[in-house]
Amino acid sequence: MEQEPTYHLEGIIRTREEMEDFEGPLTLILMLLSKNKIEIRDIQVSEILEQYLAYLDEMKAMDLEIASEFVQMASYLLFIKTKMLLNTEEEPSELELLIASLEQMKSRDVYASVKEACPALDAAARRGMLYQTKPPEPLPGGKEYRYQHEPWELLKALSNALLRAGSAPEAEEEEAPERRRRLYPRRIVYNVREKSREILLRLRSAGQISLLDFYRSSRSRSEVVATFVSILELCSLGRTRLQRENDEIMVSFTGGEIEEILDQIGQ
To answer: Are 263 and 193 in contact (CB under 8 A)?
Structure first.
């Protein structure tokens, strides 16, 4: 039996350093393919065929047994190459590869940020374990103002007070300009805190006073406005109560320490 032909293929054997040349029989090519030492795409079947035909020319004879073995192996080689070339799996596009790379970089950045923050968070947690806090205390009740009043009632009372403070008798019309000059404030004489103190002292002494009586006792418009704002502030704190009796709005004191109440009122 004739010796099996030897084939020479350039740069198809993958090694650690580079692609080396191959020299050997066809059976060795198939064995290297099975062990992933040769890439099927690097094998030129036409080059193998040319080398085999050259081998037959050298033999000067047509050996059918050798030819059949070559056809069998070459067919198997073509089958492998065709299967690899017709692979239906789609390779990822450059955009998909870029997106995947960016996602991996983002994940690495997030992991690095978390890893960097871990020592500070661990130190804060250890410090927090050294402190003890008590649960929040319930707020004292009775702060809500439980009485309902129409807005127009206070507005009407303020309007009447301003009209009374700014009006003059018909017999003294010639003195009206002078009176208006006296009522026009050049500066704020009363602030809300001081006026609230005066109102609370009067209510604690008298028990109940008409809202108009407070306005009548005012000597200027600034004092009327301060009285009005002070009563509203005391109502919002639940320290005074307004109650309508006939056509009058009566103001009463609900109780409490005056200084503690004043501490809750701004200047």
So the answer is: no
CA distance 252 to 145: 13
pLDDT digits (tens, 9 = 90+) for 75-100: 766 776 676 666 555 566 667 777 77
- Contact (Cβ atoms closer than 8 angstroms) between residue 23 and residue 66: no
The total number of structural domains in the chain stands at 2
Q: Distance between alpha carbon 110 and the CA centroid of its chain, in Å?
A: 17
* E runs forming strands in the chain: 7-14, 19-24, 208-210, 240-245, 248-253
**99-120 pLDDT, tens digit each:** 777 787 778 778 888 888 888 9
CB-based contacts of 128, cutoff 8 Å, min separation 6: none
Tell me, yes or no, whether 160 and 76 share the same domain: no
Asked if 52 and 155 sit in the same domain, the reply is no
Question: What number of other Cβ atoms are within 10 A of residue 212's Cβ?
Answer: 16
Q: Encoding tokens for residue 59?
A: 């033999």
Phi, psi of 161 (to 5 degrees): -65, -40
* Domain shared by 161 and 246, yes or no: yes
The rounded distance, in Å, linking the Cα atoms of 58 and 76 is: 25
Which residues, other chains included, contact 195 with Cβ-Cβ below 8 Å and sequence gap of 6+? 223, 226, 227, 229, 230
Give the C-alpha separation, 203 to 252, whole Å: 6
Residue pair 237/250 in contact by the 8 Å Cβ criterion: no
The verdict on pTM exceeding 0.85 is: no
What b-and-e string marks burial along 160-189, b requiring 16 or more CB atoms within 10 Å of the CB? ebbeebeeeeeeeeeeeeeeeeebeeeeee
